[in-house]
Amino acid sequence: MSAISVFVPLSARDSDMGLMNWLWEQHLFLMQQCFSLPFAFLFYFLAKWGLLPVTYRYLFVSVGGCVLAVVTMGIYSMLLFTSAFVFLLLVCSVDHRCVHAWAFGIQMLWQTIWHLLIQYREYYLHEPICIRLFLAASSLMLLTQRITSVSMDLQEKRVTLALNASSKIKSVMLLPLIGYILNFTTLLGGPLCSYSRFVSLMEGISLYPPPNPLGVVSLKLMQVLLLESVRYCLFYFLKRNTYSPSKSITLYGVLWVWGLAVVLRIQYYAHWRISECLNNAAGFGFRENPSEDPAEWSSLSDGDFWTIEASSRVSEFARRWNATTASWLRRLVYMQCKRFPLFMTFGFSLWWHGLHLGHFVGMLTWAATVKADYHIHRQLRIKLSSAWWKVYTCLIWINTQMVVACIVVTVELRDMSGLRLLAVTYIGLFPLFNVILLFIL
């Protein structure tokens, strides 16, 4: 997901037509996922009533994903189909003990080629990039998550596929894998679900059907509408009260950048919530817990606004932000690295996101501030009384908000404009102060 149109000069949006175009661009991804909701409900009810056998369930989500890709991405949907086809070839032809290395290398190479092509056209040729290409590149990143996740499962023998059978049986065995990779409920947005859990959800929806998701989906759609309304109002306020270094005081500049970062983060929260809606509508994400009322539908989630924003420490925020992606990075990189696992994890995240200058600065800053947070918290935890600990918690929450604001702005703006904005508003002193403390401690 990318907040591309937020960063068009504000003066270019003065006309009503410009405002309408902004609304259309900002809500395009949300609307595309909303259009899939009726098909998700159809899948749920057909499967629950026993009208959709297991094989046809995999066909339903696979064909739905292919149609959604073609409709939303056009010719660029071939990026996804090529990745899926190559991975299936690897699964059928490469020993599963080394399939992950092949899948990881080929998929990251394919993804990096398109990221660099976008940068070449955007920065060197100064060409406008088709929104369909951006959407395809974003979906390709999500496809990388699913492909590498299942390749690790195959290599670690958490998942086995009987591929030495006849061609007819082999095609049936590959169908769940195709459905997992091209599932229309996760094609445009997460959350990441393991392959084994996906299979259990698909096969168990008729045996142990979850309750009707219509109520919870309606509630989450209202939350999305509320988030988007708040985001629009805050963006409108920032647009009408643009920060000027020559006229505004320093504190206002810090608060203005923080407000811009909140606008960008709300966009993520809205997309994560609509992705939850789509999965819930298909019957996925229900957590069986008899003691809870109402029913819990958040077992497939990338994060909740209140939980994440209440994080008092930078390290807590990093773990909770985009939770399924954080877990994937931990398994893929952090647990495999013996030296500097934290910086290697954020370094790979930089590579996975596209290698823009803003990504480099933002990810490096995030890694350094998380490392500083560990050291500062360890040093002060044993020295502060309970009263001072409450004061310390409030101060580090403010620090976390400002550090995250710097990271979000640099990552989302992607180029030098984000760094210049942090410099003129002095909010960049917050992560710098954390890094200095890291070296001192």
Explain this structure to me?
The chain has 441 residues and is an all-alpha fold. The protein folds into two domains: 35-204, no CATH class; 214-440, no CATH class. Helix content is 71%, strand content 0%. The protein is built from 18 helices and no strands. It has helices spanning 16-34, 37-48, 54-73, 78-93, 99-124, 131-155, 167-182, 195-204, 214-240, 250-281, 305-309, 314-320, 323-332, 341-353, 357-381, 386-413, 416-425, 429-440. Helix 14 (341-353) packs antiparallel against helix 15 (357-381), helix 15 (357-381) packs antiparallel against helix 16 and helix 15 (357-381) packs across helix 18. The longest helix is centred in the middle third of the chain and has 32 residues, at 250-281. The radius of gyration is 23 Å and the shape is globular.
